[in-house]
């Protein structure tokens, strides 16, 4: 098995289960995923409310507190801890969801102030894509073949490298062309990245299903739910960027 999501790597489910121990199930993973998504949405709501203490309006500007960047850094650190210490997932995955929810609420408030209505559009696009791909996967329309996996892994790795280089360049006052631009090429780049983020969901569905079939340890339900949440958050952010670019034209 292979997944381009670092949280769902080839070795993620390789952990023998002792006789009599509880095993991972699809239903258990779904339940944990709903819990994490719920935590993200609740925390994002309160974060949004703090950004607009007097209520949102088309001409209002968000008041982003100083906790914004520390929360993002904290979520990033916890994500790496979970990836390398999978047994901690039942305890840290909810913490990650809470921090990400707070960060997403602030980020969404910033986008909403610039492009009114874009947040709700991005939410609908994210969950619409999720359910459409889940249906396509379950019906066999899309299959996670080895060639499919290799292509998505390569594209995701390339995107990660480009984003990292761009992040470094922005510290020096410059950036990689087209990533942040709203022209035809800029929108095309965002559309490509959004498609790759969406295809990662197919990889995650396949990986989680096979992990349950192989009888992974029970704590892997939290780990798998965390991995799926990582992909959903990435997809939501890319939809925000893509829709924001189309609004600038």
Based on CA atoms alone, the radius of gyration comes out at 19 Å
Total separate domains: 1
Helix percent band? over 70%
Number of helices: 7
Q: What is the rounded distance between the termini? A: 42 Å
**Overall geometry:** globular
Major pleated sheet: none
Q: Helix- and strand-based class?
A: mainly alpha
Into which percentage range does the β-strand content fall?
Answer: under 5%
Order of helices and strands: HHHHHHH
Number of strands: 0
Q: What secondary-structure arrangement, pairings included, does this model have?
A:
Layout: H1 26-51, H2 68-84, H3 89-114, H4 118-139, H5 146-170, H6 184-213, H7 220-248
Helix pairs in contact: 1-3, 1-7, 2-3, 3-7, 4-6, 4-7, 5-6, 6-7
Notes on the structure:
- With 249 residues, the chain is mainly α.
- The chain has one domain (6-248).
- It has helices spanning 26-51, 68-84, 89-114, 118-139, 146-170, 184-213, 220-248.
- The model has no long low-confidence stretch (mean pLDDT 86).
């Amino acid at each position: 098995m292979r997944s381009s999501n670092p949280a769902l790597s080839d070795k993620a489910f390789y952990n023998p289960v002792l006789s009599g121990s509880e095993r991972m199930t699809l239903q258990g993973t779904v339940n944990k995923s709903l819990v994490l998504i719920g935590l993200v949405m609740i925390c994002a709501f309160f974060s949004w409310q703090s950004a607009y203490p007097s209520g949102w309006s088309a001409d209002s500007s968000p008041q982003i507190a100083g906790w914004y960047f520390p929360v993002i850094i904290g979520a990033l650190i916890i994500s790496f801890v979970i990836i390398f210490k999978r047994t901690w997932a039942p305890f840290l995955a909810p913490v990650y969801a809470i921090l990400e929810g707070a960060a997403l609420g602030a980020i969404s408030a910033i986008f909403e102030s610039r492009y009114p209505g874009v947040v709700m559009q991005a939410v609908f696009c994210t969950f619409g894509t999720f359910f459409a791909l889940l249906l396509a996967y379950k019906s066999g329309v899309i299959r996670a073949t080895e060639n499919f996996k290799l292509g998505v892994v390569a594209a995701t790795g390339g995107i990660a490298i480009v984003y990292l280089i761009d992040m470094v360049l922005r510290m020096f006052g410059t950036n990689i062309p087209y990533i942040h631009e709203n022209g035809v090429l800029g929108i095309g780049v965002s559309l490509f990245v959004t498609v790759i983020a969406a295809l990662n969901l197919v990889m995650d569905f396949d990986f989680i299903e096979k992990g349950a079939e192989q009888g992974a340890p029970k704590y892997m339900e939290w780990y798998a739910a965390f991995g799926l949440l990582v992909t959903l958050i990435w997809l939501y952010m890319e939809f925000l960027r893509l829709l924001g670019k189309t609004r600038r034209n």
